[in-house]
Structures are given as structure tokens and as C-alpha cells.
Design a protein that fits this description.
Elements lengths: L7 H9 L5 E4 L6 H12 L4 E5 L13 E3 L5 H10 L4 E4 L5 H6 L1 H22 L2 E3 L2 E2 L23 H20 L2 E7 L1 E3 L11 H12 L1 E4 L7 E5 H13 L9 E3 L3 E3 L1 H11 L4 E4 L3 H8 L8 H7 L7 H16 L1
Parallel strand pairs: 1-2, 1-4, 2-3, 4-5, 5-7, 6-7, 7-11, 8-10, 9-13
Antiparallel strand pairs: 10-12
Bound molecules: 2-amino-3-ketobutyric acid.
Length: 331
Amino acid sequence: PLPVDPLLRFKAISQTQKAPRVLITGSLGQLGRGLNSVYKYMYGSECVVMSDIVRLPANATDVSDYNYLDILNQGSIEEIVVNKNIDTIVHFSALLSAIGETNVPLALQVNCRGVENILQVAAKHKLKVFIPSTIGAFGPTTPRENTPDLTVQCPTTIYGVSKVYAERLGEYFNHRFGVDFRSMRFPGIISATKPGGGTTDYAIQIFYDALQKGKHTCYLRPDTRLPMMYDTDCMASIIQLLSAESESLKRRTYNVTGFSFTPEEIADAIRRVMPDFEIDYDICPTRQAIADSWPKSLDDSEARKDWGWNPEYGLEETVQVMFALLRREED
Ligand code: AKB
């Protein structure tokens, strides 16, 4: 059995709220499939429309209404919104921190032009919009311990710069056009789905490697502390923030976090269930520099106070649930 019943929070919210009609962009990415499943669990398959720019993988499960959608084409976004009677967009399409540095023009297109298109469609059709932000929206001049919501935001990656832009543009569309824009600065999200191109990806890969090889080679230094959160908590934060009353929100972008650890500490936690597990290090200078510019821990007290944010998974629970899920996948 999983350490925490992951579904109770979602059931409770679905009993008090009317079913939305949600469009998820980038829905085949790390977070999209999970959110699709959560919404279907809460309200049935009628409430979600998935979209992305690639064909569905042959082994894709739990997928219902799946559509090709290029977020760089505003007309196509509008077409889906109108045809499918969408009232909420969860906009996941983005190039993450490490991959963004390898293709800045594409990152600008996807992360900036895409956000502009989504917000303009939201303004025109009066939609609620969730666009995730990230710890990457902070930079080397931000206080790194217990980083608050309001502080210096001078990131040094194109990912971070584009996410600050998304935060500011969303706020602007909120006060200028009344768009119900909501965002959270996520830490690294640990899920049993592979991410692509992030700096925190090692914290997922380590579980796959532990099971397949008993060993992980980490691209970050052993003492690199970063904030993280388990997938189900991430899903809960999105559902909770989107269902919070507008009046309870004192800001449009909130910090949220689970727990912080270093590669050395997660390796120790894995060793508590797999004593022979080994870790060694082959530092990637690009990703190390990115990690060194990010907060080590986040202050998410405003989210807790304003809309009841309360993560359920710590490091030990995350290790247990990741092994349980990946072992189930192997069977
Ligand atoms: C990344 O590492 O780029 C992301 C993030 C922390 O936003 N996982």
C-alpha cells in the first residue's frame, strides 16, 4: 500500500465544486498525464481535453480526448477553446532550465510567445488560467534560504527569465483585463514519469537507476541542496489553487514546496530501503551552475495561509512511493 492515501484530497474538493472544462497544454509532459488522471478521477472524462504536438505513444493509457495543439498558433488554441467549451487552461508547455540553454530561440518561442497566446485567448474568452512558474524564476542575487514570495528575481537562465515574464504578464492580464490568472513557483517535481531537460531531473533518474543498476551517477555535487515536491502534492496544489475563491488570493503567484535535500541525502534515504545502492558524481558544469543559482528552500507560508496549502509527502514517503510505482511498472 502507498504510504498516504493520495486520492482523499481530490475527492473532497470535487464534492464541493462544479466540474470545470479544462484544456491541458503540453499534456504528454511530466505533469500533464497525471493532472489528466486526477481530473478524470474527480469529475469523469468529460472534464478534460488533452493537447500536445506529438502523436500519442502506443502504450499511452488513461487518455481520452487528445488533440494536436501548437501553442504558437493562437487561432488553434481558440478553436479548441470554442469547440470544446473550455473554461480553464492549464498551460504546461515549456522548455525547462537545462534544455532551454541549448536552444534559446525555441525557448523564447515556446515559453514567451506561447504564454502570450494563452493569455490573449484567456482574455478574449474569459477563461481561468494556470501557468506554472518555478524556483528557476529566482537567481543568484535572491536570498537562498527560505526564499519568500516577494524578493529579488534576477534569474540567469532563459527558462527563469521567461518564467518571470509569464508571472508578470499573467499579473498584468489579471489587473488590466480581469483574467483569472493563477501561478505557483514549483520546486523540482519528483514523479514516476520521466521529465525532460530540467536541472532537478536527477531526483527522478536516481530511482530508475537504483532499480535497474543499483547505482546512479549524479551530475550535481553531493551537497547541492534544492527544494523538491512529490507529484501527488504537486497535483493537489494545482487543484487546490484553481479551486480557491478569488477573494482569498492575496497574490496571483505563490511559492509552494515539499522538502529540500541534497544528492547525498536522497542517496542515504534510498539506502534505507536498498542498502547496496551506490552513488557517484560526474558534475555537469551547466546544470551545477543553474542549481547553484537557485534557492535551497522556499517559504510557502503565504500559500498555506491564503488557500490551505499543506503537502503530505516528505522525503521518506516519496522514496517509498517512487519505488512502489516503478516496481509496479516493471511487473
Ligand atoms: C527544472 O529543473 O528546470 C525544473 C524546475 C525546477 O523548474 N524541474
